Amino acid sequence: MHRRWIALAVALTLGGMTHAQNAPTPPASPATTPASDDPYLWLDNIDGAKQLDWVKARNAQTASKYAQGPEFTALQGRLLEMLDSDAKIPMVSKIGDHFYNFWRDKQHPKGVWRRTTLAEYRKDKPAWETVIDLDALAAAEKENWVWHSAQCLKPDYRRCLVSLSRGGADADVIREFDLGTKTFIADGFTLPEAKSQVAWIDDDHIYVATDFGPGSMTTSSYPRIVKEWKRGTPLTSATTVYEGKPTDMSISAYRDRTPGFERDFVQRALEFYSSETYVRGKDGKLTRVDVPTDASTDVEREWMTIEPRTAWTVNGKTYPSGSLLAVNFDDFMAGKRDITVLFQPDEHSSLAGYSWTRHHLVLNVMRDVVSSIQVLTPTASGPWKSEALSGAPALSTVQASAIDPDNSDEYFLTVSGFLQPTTLYYGVLGKGEREALKHSPAFFDASKFVVTQHFVTSKDGTRVPYFEIAPKTLKADGTNPTLVYGYGGFEISLQPAYAAGAGRAWLEKGGVYVIANIRGGGEYGPRWHQAALKANRPRAYEDFAAVSQDLINRKITSPRHMGMMGGSNGGLLAGNMLTQYPQLYGAVVSQVALLDMKRYTHMSAGASWMAEYGDPDKADEWAYIKTFSPYENVKAGVKYPPVLFTTSTRDDRVGPVHARKMAAKMQAMGFDASLYENIEGGHGAAADNKQAAFMSALAYTYLWDHLK
Fold first, then answer.
1. b vs e for 115-124, b when ≥16 Cβ sit within 10 Å of the residue's Cβ?
2. Domain, as residue range, for 593
3. Considering the domain boundaries, does residue 145 fall inside one?
4. Taking a C-beta distance cutoff of 8 angstroms, is the pair 633, 664 a contact?
5. Catalytic site residue from 568, 604, 648, 696
6. CB–CB of 552/520 below 8 Å?
7. Which of 317, 504, 537, 634 is deepest in the core (most CB within 10 A)?
8. How far apart are CA 281 and CA 264, in angstroms?
9. Model confidence at 70, in pLDDT bands (50, 70, 90)?
């Protein structure tokens, strides 16, 4: 039940990798769009022959300028070598008696889903058993399959619901798989391509929320109806469990199969940060969990944890935004409100996440964007026992997660920093020292660089942190090529993480790399995010401008040598830095971005983000949204820095139309605007390592060519 929707991915993260998370599927038919005199509206036909010919022509122009020659080829090769490296840590999750990993390399560009035992995993070179070879499957079925996930039925973990995407889109095909025979079940549960949400009930029943036909999807392009589907019956006979409104974001259901605590839940996502959760009784009756709609909840055995996003007053006591609360679930449903405070934020700290083991709750806490771990243990009465899990290096990120919360107190812990490759530890809470299992290789010589953290005062007086990774021999003379990266939305934090891609593509060439922890993110919890919502969106851009100006004031760089980059919501950030602060940058890269904020709610999954940006179809909200709509605000006669827009035809989350139209409009005005649209890849803009290396090399080469 606990969820942090991350509908907008950071297309190229700190390490030059991609990550994209939860966002469900386009409606069965195009949404009704407002009338427009937009001359570039014809580019909305994403798969039209004329439109794709236009895209391919722009791709060729961009590639001929920035993706040619020995330097580009060498960089692309080095990035691909890193992505394909057999020395990377194969992160695993436990399913039954085995540990599973999805792996891509040179021999398996689409990837293999494989498994091993803990004893084997401890070895430098574990013996892996292939479960699904996606390359072989794609070749046999003549489909461009991209791996999404597998959801397996406990406690025997024999049957799994496997989600596969065509070309990397969020929409996927779901097929039932037998882990024993390692084959797809011909007459098993199967769903055609859609943004489906499914969950096991028992061996012969699943919850399914999918595209059931006209009217069954929300305006956000996600399922509006969830049903219970019995094995061996047609989908049309599935029984409706809950039906939401077209204006809801999405509807889903699942069964908690924790032994002794089996419960069924229905979730109604009203909008991005607002939801209702219901307990479904054996008679099908739904009883709402009475918490604020903007609170996140998680039920684990007898406990329910609650994270209020705004202050919550219960029985005369107020619990602040960003706190973590615990209550006995059955008592809460019976009307009792005996609430225990497990974490309370302050001006410098926030909760980054948490994970249950069998007997403990592990908290990942941030203080000024730097991690620490607390282990909490429930007691019979009174405060929970708390102790620190020590060992984190300075300016690093430490994350702990349970391995098998139903049965053990085992945990995995990762430690990483900008210059520190990730180390994976294995431990058992309360049983001695943890064991270092795996070490990620060093992909560049970190001894030449130093990480520092700085704080700058934004326009309204807010103290904003940023990280700087720079050569130890740096001269503050204003000539250093400097790349500033940001996101600033959806309560997503940019924490220290090994900068593998940036190390090879930027730092090794003598550049300075900067991470701006601007408002809109989650670095200081909900308050940091809410400070840049809707009409306050410009605060994020003011913060980023303040960081950029501070680098100039400190003579780290100058506008001629400073560039910025961001993906998705960070691509919107890039568009606004381009149009509002063009004097600060020598080049800008905007990836898989929102840019046309007038029509974003009618494009792909855009309607799901109105809680973040507002509704442009309402005149009073458009009045402020238009101030941060780059497509509206690009003007003739302004001196803009060169800009590269990258996107993917198969991105059904933000969609490629934003980048197409922005590039077309700027090119028509005579500006130096380039476009590259990968035909595959979804919101991550790459369907495999080779494509990811190309897209990353293109972005870094573009910036280096303009800033060196």
1. bbebeebeee
2. 45-81+443-707
3. no
4. no
5. 568
6. no
7. 537
8. 7
9. very high
The answer to pTM > 0.85 is: yes
- 622 token code pair: 């458009």
568 a catalytic residue: yes
Q: Are the C-beta atoms of 397 and 496 separated by less than 8 Å?
A: yes
Distance of CA 286 to the CA centre of its chain: 31
- Token pair, residue 618, equals 């309402």
Q: Are 159 and 176 in contact (CB under 8 A)?
A: yes
Distances (CA, A) of 665 to 57, 368, 498, 616, 638: 16, 40, 37, 20, 14
* Extended beta strands in 405-529, E state: 410-416, 423-428, 435-439, 449-457, 463-471, 482-485, 512-516
For residue 343, being part of any structural domain is answered with no
507 and 648, same domain (yes or no):
yes
In-domain check, residue 632:
yes
CATH classification at residue 539: 3.40.50.1820
Cα within 13 Å of Cα(22), Cβ side: 13
Helix axis angle for 569-580 and 657-668, nearest 10°, is 20
Helix (H, G, I), strand (E, B) or coil at 354: strand
Distances (CA, A) of 523 to 184, 350, 416, 481, 565: 42, 7, 17, 27, 19
**Tens of pLDDT, residues 340-399:** 999 999 999 999 999 999 999 999 999 999 999 999 999 887 789 999 987 667 788 999
The SS3 assignment for 508 reads: helix
Residue 409 is encoded by which pair of tokens? 């107190």
Consecutive H or E run containing 583: none
Does the structure show a pLDDT above 50 at 470? yes
Please identify which of the residues 548, 683, 696, 706 carries the catalytic annotation: 683
Which of 288, 311, 326 marks a domain boundary? 288
DSSP assignment letter at 549: H
- Strands in 397-402's sheet, in edge-to-edge order, are 397-402, 410-416, 423-428, 435-439
Q: Could you report the per-residue pLDDT of 240-290, keeping only the tens digit for each?
A: 999 999 999 999 999 999 999 999 999 999 999 999 999 999 999 999 999
Give the Cα separation of 559 and 553 in Å (integer).
11
- Exposed / middle / buried, residue 132 (Cβ in 10 Å: 0-12, 13-18, 19+): buried
